[in-house]
What does this fold into?
Amino acid sequence: MKKGVVTIADVARHAGVSVSTVSYVLSGKRTISASTRARVHASIRALGFHPHAGARSLASNRSSVIALVLPLRQGMHLPVLMQFATAVVTSARSHHHDVLLVTADEGPAGLRRVAAGAMVDGLIVMDVEMDDPRVPTLRQLARPSVLIGLPADSAGLTCVDLDFHRAGAICVDHLADLGHREVALLGAPRVVYERDTGFAHRTRDGFLEAAARRGLVAFTEPCEEDAATVRATVDALLLKHPGLTGFVVHNEAAVAHVQAALPRDTSIVAICPDELAERFSPALSSVQIPAEELGRQAVDLLMTKLNGGEPASLTMLPPHLTVRASSGPH
Amino acid sequence: MKKGVVTIADVARHAGVSVSTVSYVLSGKRTISASTRARVHASIRALGFHPHAGARSLASNRSSVIALVLPLRQGMHLPVLMQFATAVVTSARSHHHDVLLVTADEGPAGLRRVAAGAMVDGLIVMDVEMDDPRVPTLRQLARPSVLIGLPADSAGLTCVDLDFHRAGAICVDHLADLGHREVALLGAPRVVYERDTGFAHRTRDGFLEAAARRGLVAFTEPCEEDAATVRATVDALLLKHPGLTGFVVHNEAAVAHVQAALPRDTSIVAICPDELAERFSPALSSVQIPAEELGRQAVDLLMTKLNGGEPASLTMLPPHLTVRASSGPH
DNA sequence: GGCGATTGTCGAAGCGCTTCGACAATGGTT
DNA sequence: AACCATTGTCGAAGCGCTTCGACAATCGCC
It folds into this structure.
């Protein structure tokens, strides 16, 4: 009667080779003759050997696990989060890595725990804010990381995000192409701008630059998230600028209220998940949040770093506009 | 200049005790005097020591990680999945465990990989079907597991699920209380019944039993998921049974079409995520899918097993009906 | 046909931790 | 005053793997 678990020593004995030979067959780090390799593989299969992850990580100082740190807070659009997580897992698996799920509410301590304890080789941190308290921790950690979102100081970090600047711009271009001459951006709530959140400002800048380039009259307003305030904001805008016919909305929670508050013949373009845009009637023309692409890119970048590479510090994914029923010619 | 990582030996030296003493301070498995304990803790903090997870798992044969196996396929309601995952992580953390995210598309091999390789101490497998190929694998694995969903043969397993039987019943009770005399259940697509999927049958049985108990006339129909077929099904039902006034819908994808196809004065009760029920107008009275409760329970059960306990084989969560605008007196 | 390179394999030294048995120093009982 | 328990600590033996240096066997080349 054997012991419970099959070890590499059992495989070596069964195949009539040394333990190190088995290890080299597995890792491919030294040349092993084809016949030996075949014999070892046969023994592995015959015994049902699975290397002990802990032993491996202890000896090699690599765990083949990456951490995925997800925000827990309300307001995050759950489907997008899930799509992102799925993409990360799928992509990591294709690089022979597993994914440890960590929630952001553990804060910097959580990052330290999994990184310093050598549970993971690297981290992907989603939804990083401008002055995120985790950024300094990430910097001093000995393990590489990739951030989704753009902190204030990204020097020495690797970040991926949707190019909100261009996203704002292509919304304007779309409206301009349709013949609109006066356009407005309804963005995040005022507090979000005040705490200097990256994506809100980037969208606004892109929006304004494109409007200037296309010779449009442009206005931007923060946008609260309750129906009444939204209606008041929209009404005030329309009253003051009767020529306004095109709206860009960058606020998931408010977009429904905006659509309800606007006259039917105005055009709306949103920056929001496709899933959300399709739910409205008329369906919203929108720039999607490319969750899967973000996940894939983040993993690729992290793998590059794990292999000693030095990828670009900033990766900005190009925005894609899907035209639906909410925008039309003027 | 020290080496990169702080080890337990460094802590021992710094505190002037032996390595084993530090280990016992950490695990509490032997009594250590208060003064020594304090000294060790001070050294741990001073040096920023984090035990090496791999070394720990190798020596103790426990990884303090559990696997969460999530379905990837379309049709799963993403927000529910995410809520569930979040609950599992939060709950696992409160038991000092981490969570490894595995996707179901790896199949039985994925389970074997993480379990046999000692990456995880136990597994939570979501969305188990009646004849799930992973069930035999789970049975022969040396690690405990908890299933969400009910396979055909649950002997020797630990399963948690919503009590769909009672869910079907309370929908009927609700409609009966409102004065409806003829009710119909629109369930999963026909193929789902044919492949003997557990929850579909359980709901139907509960529905029929309750109807009999309350003396209602009851019909059940499978329900496809495209608008045209749904309308045809509904129209046929209403034509044949003009007295039908109450509908129970257990089909997330079809419920929108059902609502659109039914006359305004019929009552609808759905079995679906709250998030979905609230999105309709009028909002649907519904029995929610208790994602968070399922996650918490699953972790609790798994922890019980990891500690040598033997929890109940079947845990059926009681359904909760939220009355909204879609159901009214007849 | 002799010599350096290359190829294939082995043995052993760790990696950082847990845990077992040993044992000195106490304390409480007769 | 002699004894047995209890308490607190230590040393050492692994846990299963990777990796380094060593070395025998084979190869290619002048």
